[in-house]
Automatic annotation (TrEMBL):
Pathway membership: Amino-acid biosynthesis; L-arginine biosynthesis; carbamoyl phosphate from bicarbonate: step 1/1; Pyrimidine metabolism; UMP biosynthesis via de novo pathway; (S)-dihydroorotate from bicarbonate: step 1/3
Gene that specifies this protein: carA
PANTHER family reported for this sequence: CARBAMOYL-PHOSPHATE SYNTHASE SMALL CHAIN, MULTIFUNCTIONAL TRYPTOPHAN BIOSYNTHESIS PROTEIN-RELATED
Lineage: Bacteria, Pseudomonadati, Bacteroidota, Bacteroidia, Bacteroidales
Subunit structure as annotated in this protein's UniProt entry: Composed of two chains; the small (or glutamine) chain promotes the hydrolysis of glutamine to ammonia, which is used by the large (or ammonia) chain to synthesize carbamoyl phosphate. Tetramer of heterodimers (alpha,beta)4.
Protein name from the UniProt record: Carbamoyl phosphate synthase small chain
Catalytic activity annotation: L-glutamine + H2O = L-glutamate + NH4(+); hydrogencarbonate + L-glutamine + 2 ATP + H2O = carbamoyl phosphate + L-glutamate + 2 ADP + phosphate + 2 H(+)
Amino acid sequence: MSNIIGDEKKVKLILSDGSVFHGRSFGYEKPVAGEVVFNTAMTGYPESLTDPSYAGQLMVLTYPLVGNYGVPPFTTEPNGLATFMESEKIHAEAIIVSDYSEEYSHWNAAESLADWLKREQVPGITGIDTRELTKVLREQGVMMGRIVFGNEPDHLPESSYAGINYVDKVSCKEIIHYAGNKKNGYSKDTPSTQLKFQLSNSGSRSKKVVLVDCGVKTNIIRCLLKRNVEVIRVPWDYDFNELEFDGLFISNGPGDPDTCDAAVQNIRKAMQNPKLPVFGICMGNQLLAKAGGAKIYKLKYGHRSHNQPVRMVGTERCFITSQNHGYAVDNNTLGTDWEPLFINMNDGSNEGIRHKTNPWFSAQFHPEAASGPTDTEFLFDKFVNLL
Ligand SMILES: NC(=O)CC[C@H](N)C(=O)O
């Protein structure tokens, strides 16, 4: 076996404030730049790397040991969805870890993280003091960074994150239909969740949901399909209003929601029907809020982890949630017809909104998890029950 440490090339992470972190390469070697963000989850690197919401970002994992359970095989279900990944490829620009483990062991592992990164041409760097790096990002806020190999010059072309429409880069390019899947079983709504909307009919025809694909994670589609709805996945800027459908879902997606005006206009048009059920997740929360007239701002260092506590407004119910976002809805700009649905218990920021009378709601966190806790999956039941 080759000595991976011996073969590793020296590599530098250079932050836009001038700080430099030295490490070693274990993935593909090409210089990259992106927004440096940290994720404090202890597991889930295959899901996070393939989450399209990480496009344009260099992902720092604060959990020190990474790679020890390898990477699952890339297989697809009959409907074309990836079985174990959140999309068909790695979307993060790079992964930055403290202690990469070349040795791996897991019943479902097909290859090492290093081999996967090399095949997908994504850099991975190890030996980085990720505690120190995270302290810098927490104190100064997220910033741009570059990864430079060996003796290459320190300067890559200028790059930025804000203002770039990453959604357009990762959204599907044409409409994709998925039939609902009765077989997987439809879990009934939890009566105790206290998120009450009037239930509409529950006829036998399977309901159609338009899914605005801003960079949708596989498990969101799966969570809808297993509740036996038909999903019509449309490109982020497609005007779906001419289609025949029973509910609107707005997906997660990378980057700055202020670059997604076309989607906001289409959502606003759909909201002319006050009875249409609408549910959004993450970027979907931000776009629904924008369609309702609210404003978005950028958090200092975002929420990326498996243990973000949120409280359902008007109740004492708290949930531990999976999150990945850098922007947030400004609660103070919500119109009088809207109210916060969830609040983050660490920093008080918005974690979801609801309309006071119409069946429109959204979550800033990820009820579909993948990876992370599944405690809020009942929100899909709420949505499907409204159809
Ligand atoms: N996961 C997401 O949908 C991210 C939403 C948005 N791009 C943000 O960073 O805030």
